[in-house]
Amino acid sequence: MSDILAFDLGASSGRAILGSLKDGKIVTEELHRFPNDPVQTGDRLHWDILRLYHEIKQGLLKAKHKGIQPLSIGIDSWAVDYGLIAADGSLLGNPLHYRDRSSAGMMERLQEELTPAEIFNRTGIQFLPFNTIYQLYAAKLNQSPQLAAAKRFLMIPDLLRYFLTGEMHNEFSNATTTQLYNPLKQEWDGELLQHLGLSQSLFGHVLQPGSPAGNLQPSVQEELGLGPIAVHAVAEHDTASAVVAVPALERSFAYLSCGTWSLLGTEIQEPIMTAEAAQLNFTNEGGFGGTYRLLKNIMGLWILQESRREWERSGQDYSFSELVKLAGEAPAFTAFIDPDDPVFMAPGDMPARVKEYCRKTNQPVPEDAGTLVRCILESLAFKYRYVLELTEQLSGKQFNGLHMVGGGIHNTLLCQWTANAIGKPVWAGPAEGSAIGNLAVQWIARGEFADIWEARRVIRDSFPVTIYGPEQGEAWYDGYGRFLEITTLR
Ligand code: LRH
After folding, report:
1. How many A from CA of 4 to the centre of ligand 1?
2. Beta strand pairing call for 44-46 and 39-41
3. ipTM exceeding the 0.85 mark
4. Residues within a 6 A CB radius of ligand 1
5. Integer Cα distance of 73 and 233 in angstroms
6. Which of 70, 181, 247, 421 has a CB 3.0–4.6 Å from the CB of 381, allowing a cystine?
7. Mind listing the pLDDT tens digit for each residue in 97-143?
8. DSSP assignment of 312-348, as one string?
9. Cis omega (within 30 of 0) for bond into 430
10. Domains of the chain, each with CATH number or no CATH
């Protein structure tokens, strides 16, 4: 009996994945899939948090209806977002989604009071305008009544765990992404909190991934007709879970967690908080077993997802596979973008923004969908090469290939082009990286796996890995030179 449940809340959907161990392999089954659409009210963009909690309970019921009472539950989701808890234990309002505009400009504003070096030296975290520190700074400046009444700060998986168990804990991997956690002191950074005027008591003791974090509370057991299932704090930042699931055989490896975001980097034992790391805007996010992820955020498939949405809005209803097929048929290396140009961050008309970028940089403007998608995907592949090389430079390691995990690996053209761009093999799999990493940490906590390396070996044996060898070396080498010039990354 090894049945456990992972809840993975991603940008396109949430999932309840049942995991079991059979004959030395991991078997997974998707029990429940549900939307995770943010809800706009007026100018604000929110999490639909109670609906998600409802869907988590539906996932538990689906397990029950199959005659399964899981031994453990874990929840992961994207980083940086949070809810606030009142003195009576109730949730103060709907958490904001990080793409909400209220934190726009806050990073720059806070940097007028604290230098970037001061913030980076305390946290080791990259500067992203939506980091929790800037969301909280915005709340403070706007005299948020919720912040004024708050007694506890919980990140999204902390919050959903709290609803299930009645216990409030902050989990390490997500805590680091706030840019308020000091990895050197291994605690919340008192000085940063004080500077922002945030009470230290909002922030609780930080649990390591794999720690027990309570049981289903009696009211939930009664409502669902279940027993006291154990709840674990897993690596609750989805990227942390995805990296747990990288089926690496060598201790030193590079990964690309590929979904709405692309997160590319390597796993390290101690954060690298040098001036060079700060200048390159690399991050050191907390992982399982006291590890860190030295990585950079790359805008990822977001630009393609938003393009598709825009085309749909204007009556051209392409599926993703149609778009990828059209891209494959379009001429190569017509035009390039820097996917991380700030113009691509906010939701909206991406095809227009891509065209405008090309116009401004004196390139041919991709008019049809195929050429435009090809421009996005080739540019992503080249940006991966750029960040991979910086990761090697900063970590002092050399990588002989790149592991790709996450839903983005279904885009086989992107996998192949990534191999072409980096001139090294890409090992793609598993696609459900975050959910599998979530399960793996629970099994480690339960003693089913001795450590993360045993978990990774079993993951490697359980899920297919597709190998993409580099092709058309010279053309991609020349293309990279042009990409660097146009994007002024060189
Ligand atoms: C990926 C991710 C990423 C964060 C972003 C907010 O889902 O968690 O690691 O930077 O979302």
Report:
1. 24
2. antiparallel
3. yes
4. 78-80, 98, 237-239, 261, 263, 297
5. 9
6. 421
7. 999 999 999 999 999 999 999 999 999 999 999 999 999 999 999 99
8. HHTT----HHHHHHHHHHSPTTS----TTSGGGTSSS
9. yes
10. 4-236 (3.30.420.40), 246-429+449-490 (3.30.420.40)
